[in-house]
């Protein structure tokens, strides 16, 4: 019996030693090929990524031997839920232990930037500059659609000389301090492309060009706070366009005053504003404005692609609740104006 116990303990001990040996072997650096000697690779940890996903991504990018061993190491150290989001440059052949420490400390020269839905190009530039993210000697306004048309199919039918208003997708980003404008724009355009990737059939079936879809989506973003109301408003706007009626959109006039003229109290609309000779004056001109009036989110883009037919011709937003009030006739609409806006 004693010999049996000794045998069992010996087998167990050998197993433990073998396991520890394998564990530490898998925590050794990956063998680096000659072409990757002294080279590094960009590794991105998105906000909200779990340690399991991070470990698997490291293994997939050939930065560690074993995701399983890396995860176990993080758990042993108590670091599993402490890894920081960021854009890292990791050397090929780096020790997994050093990689873990790097991800734990984060990137002090980076910032998390939240771009809300409906932010204009001017809003985005001001925010990036105030946070020190955008190079102070550069401007997003200097970038034109022509600079990116060869890289992104969704820009093919857009005016080459237009800026990127409408296409800088609202989201949460991690940017390095003092980033060049082209790098920032590319990150946001990549995100735009990813988010519309499942909408190809709806885009194909739309009666509008893609640039017109984004203009319409930006109007919906600026005019309609609640997602549930957006497809109905899209239907009203398209119906007015088809019937050669002015869209009469306040958001486009506000955009012109705030972002092009940059006037004080630009969000207040006067009777004179409705007479302004501007391609953004949708009271005076029929059809869509010259270009997008903000950078819409996915909800507004989907609404522009999926308009709902209805008996309504008019709408307004209740400033107290954000609810959209719909009217079938001009008389009903005028009554709604008196009730909700005066």
Give descriptors for this structure.
342 residues; elongated; single chain; two-stranded antiparallel sheet; 3 domains
Concise summary:
This protein has 342 residues and is mostly helical. It is 42% helix and 9% strand.
3D architecture notes:
There is one protein chain. This protein is mostly helical. The chain folds into three domains: 39-108, 2-Layer Sandwich (Dna Ligase, domain 1); 110-195, no CATH class; 201-310, no CATH class. The chain is 42% helix and 9% strand. The chain contains twelve helices and six strands. It has a two-stranded antiparallel sheet. The longest helix is centred in the first third of the chain and has 25 residues, at 2-26.
First-residue to last-residue Cα separation:
95 Å
What's the helix-strand series?
HEHHEHEHEHHHHHHEEH
Helix content: 40-55%
* Sheet/helix structural class: mainly alpha
Secondary structure elements and their pairing?
Elements lengths: L1 H25 L13 E6 L5 H10 L6 H11 L8 E6 L4 H10 L4 E5 L6 H10 L41 E5 L4 H15 L4 H6 L4 H14 L6 H13 L7 H12 L36 H8 L8 E4 L6 E4 L2 H11 L2
Antiparallel strand pairs: 1-2, 3-4, 5-6
Helix pairs in contact: 2-3, 8-9, 8-11, 9-11
